Amino acid sequence: MKYYLIVGEASGDLHASNLMKALSEVDTEADFRFLGGDLMQSVGGVLVKHYREMAYMGFVPVLLNIQTIFRNMQTCRNDIRSWQPDVVILIDYPGFNLKIAKYVKTQLQIPVYYYISPKIWAWKKYRIKAFRRYVDKMFCILPFEKEFYHKLNYPVDYVGNPSVDAVDSFIQQRATHPDTFLIEEGLSDKPILALLAGSRKQEIKDNLPVMLNVAAAFPDYQPVIAGAPGIECEYYTQYTSLHPVKIVFSKTYPLLYHSSVALVTSGTATLEASLFRIPQVVCYYVKMGKIAGFVFRNFFHTSYISLVNLIAGREIVQELFADRFSYLTIYTELKRILYDASYKKQMLDGYAEVIHILGKSGASQRTARLIYKYLHS
């Protein structure tokens, strides 16, 4: 069968590539075409456009690149119409993907499946109307999403979380292969403080300088930045020139595996840190922090921004964002994690709870089997 997949960022590339591998196992004649990244390309198929050419975050960047975004969308529509896949599989990236879903469903009558639900449980709940009209099947990766959609009378499948698969696979490989990460990256024997400042330039610009200043206050730890895919090294050096810090690219999992603690922006990375059982401070800069904090507390549908807390349904890690984001708050929380053993243990116990709630690995395989089953039913 012919599968057309669309992702818009690095995490989507990872999860889509694993889904493609799983689809190839259940469908030996699987043929892939996609808007994606290097990991998907390594599996096979045709890369139509790289996600680096599509990822714009924030009102101003979107406005400045609006013509490029429209061209990308038209390229995608034309390519789907020309190739005529058996199904279009969308991975997160709702601003782009929901417009494609509408076109595919109404103009081409091709089935549309969604893997990794957009976070409408946080805001933009009105998007449920688009899901009902244009998305035939939804495969969710967060346990609470099934109940959320059930209340909206929209049936979905919870398939498990692909980050569990990815981390389990990495740890298993580490058990059977020589570990040369520290030597390859020229790292010392000091404990590592991992800095995960986001996957987009604006996030890095907003978060990394404060992270670096906090890291400098803990000289017994060596800070190491997880370089984001598609971001050139030179972009980081404008912020790191005054700090003795290493940057590693395409090695976030090895970095977390060897880290003692981490400063993490909100996103998939907060969950990945918990799966590696790395104590963390979630810190995320937002413009007009006081106003943003007020809006979040009073108008969002959720009480948390980090996946760790959202899955647990309670506060396991501190979320220092909006009006809580500052050098002092991040420094204080990091110091407590490093020097208060009981506080650290409480966080690690919370991680164990999250891992139990997520369930066993196999999300990609479960999703692939369901896709194949639904397409043949």
Task: Give an overview of the whole structure.
With 377 residues, the chain is an alpha/beta fold. It folds into 2 domains: 2-160 and 362-376, Glycogen Phosphorylase B (Rossmann fold, 3-Layer(aba) Sandwich), CATH 3.40.50.2000; 166-358, Glycogen Phosphorylase B (Rossmann fold, 3-Layer(aba) Sandwich). 53% of the residues lie in helices and 16% in strands. The protein is built from 18 helices and 13 strands. The protein has helices at 10-26, 38-43, 59-64, 66-83, 94-108, 128-134, 143-151, 162-176, 181-184, 201-216, 233-240, 252-258, 268-275, 289-299, 307-312, 327-339, 341-358, 363-376, and strands at residues 2-6, 31-36, 46-50, 87-91, 112-115, 137-140, 157-158, 192-196, 222-227, 246-249, 259-264, 280-284, 319-321. It has a 7-stranded parallel sheet, with helices on both faces. A 6-stranded parallel sheet has the order 10-9-8-11-12-13, sandwiched between helices. Strand 9 (222-227), helix 11 and strand 10 (246-249) form a beta-alpha-beta unit. Helix 10 packs across helix 16 (327-339).
Number of helices: 18
Number of strands: 13
CATH H-level superfamily of the largest domain: Glycogen Phosphorylase B
Tell me the span between the first and last alpha carbons: 14 Å
CATH class of the largest domain: Alpha Beta
Largest sheet report: 7 strands, parallel
Task: Report strand order across the widest sheet.
Answer: 3-2-1-4-5-6-7
CATH architecture of the largest domain: 3-Layer(aba) Sandwich
Work out the strand percent: 15-25%
- Taken together, the total number of domains comes to 2
Mean pLDDT: 91
Give the helix level as a range of percent.
40-55%
- Low-confidence spans: none
Shape: globular
Stated plainly, the CATH topology of the largest domain is called Rossmann fold
Class of secondary structure makeup: alpha/beta
The Cα radius of gyration reads 21 Å
